[in-house]
Amino acid sequence: KKGLSFDEKRTRMLELFHETEDFWQLKDIEKMAPKQKGITPQSVKEVLDSLVSDSLVICEKIGTSNYFWSFPSEAQALVNHSDLSEQKQTLEQSLEEAKAGKEDSNDRTQVNEAVKELEATVKALTSQMERYKDRDPAYLDSQRKDVDVAIAAANRWTDNIFTVRKYVQKSFNIDGASFDQQFGIKDDFDYI
């Protein structure tokens, strides 16, 4: 039967900590690791030391005893911390690159002032255009078309009223003045 490689021993030892999620002394680990994970008793301390040196297992001295532990959440937090550190470094480098060439100088200050002046001019001209909007030929033409449509609609309704009046006069033998009075139609009612 072939023995376990060092990496396999490390993986199994770490699994032991993650499965138990408890705190252990070295003597307890030396008893459990061979039984549960098949790690030889002679190599337990060496494997444990390697995991501690890689920060995968935490070792803390409490009183006169050393306690060892590792939780799955800590391993994930370590990976996340590493990823975030790399991301931070990349972002800081990008920020430095973006800042390059944008240091304050006389030319840059003058250009910024010119841009602000031009923006103020554009704003003033836009405001002035809004005041004269009602004199715009396109706007006036649009208003004329709207008036023509409104007149045509009013004349169409006037024609409809005259048609109804004529029908009522013929069918019910009512004179036009009575019809106008009943429906509130004024004497000057006519086409526009």
TrEMBL record:
<keyword id="KW-0233">DNA recombination</keyword>
<feature type="region of interest" description="Disordered">
    <location>
        <begin position="89"/>
        <end position="109"/>
    </location>
</feature>
<dbReference type="GO" id="GO:0007131">
    <property type="term" value="P:reciprocal meiotic recombination"/>
</dbReference>
<dbReference type="GO" id="GO:0005634">
    <property type="term" value="C:nucleus"/>
</dbReference>
<dbReference type="GO" id="GO:0003690">
    <property type="term" value="F:double-stranded DNA binding"/>
</dbReference>
<feature type="domain" description="Mnd1 HTH">
    <location>
        <begin position="13"/>
        <end position="72"/>
    </location>
</feature>
<feature type="compositionally biased region" description="Basic and acidic residues">
    <location>
        <begin position="96"/>
        <end position="107"/>
    </location>
</feature>
<feature type="domain" description="Leucine zipper with capping helix">
    <location>
        <begin position="144"/>
        <end position="192"/>
    </location>
</feature>
<dbReference type="InterPro" id="IPR005647">
    <property type="entry name" value="Mnd1"/>
</dbReference>
<keyword id="KW-0469">Meiosis</keyword>
<comment type="similarity">
    <text>Belongs to the MND1 family.</text>
</comment>
<dbReference type="Pfam" id="PF03962">
    <property type="entry name" value="Mnd1"/>
</dbReference>
<dbReference type="Pfam" id="PF18517">
    <property type="entry name" value="LZ3wCH"/>
</dbReference>
<dbReference type="InterPro" id="IPR040453">
    <property type="entry name" value="Mnd1_HTH"/>
</dbReference>
<dbReference type="InterPro" id="IPR040661">
    <property type="entry name" value="LZ3wCH"/>
</dbReference>
<keyword id="KW-0175">Coiled coil</keyword>
<protein>
    <recommendedName>
        <fullName>Meiotic nuclear division protein 1 homolog</fullName>
    </recommendedName>
</protein>
<keyword id="KW-0539">Nucleus</keyword>
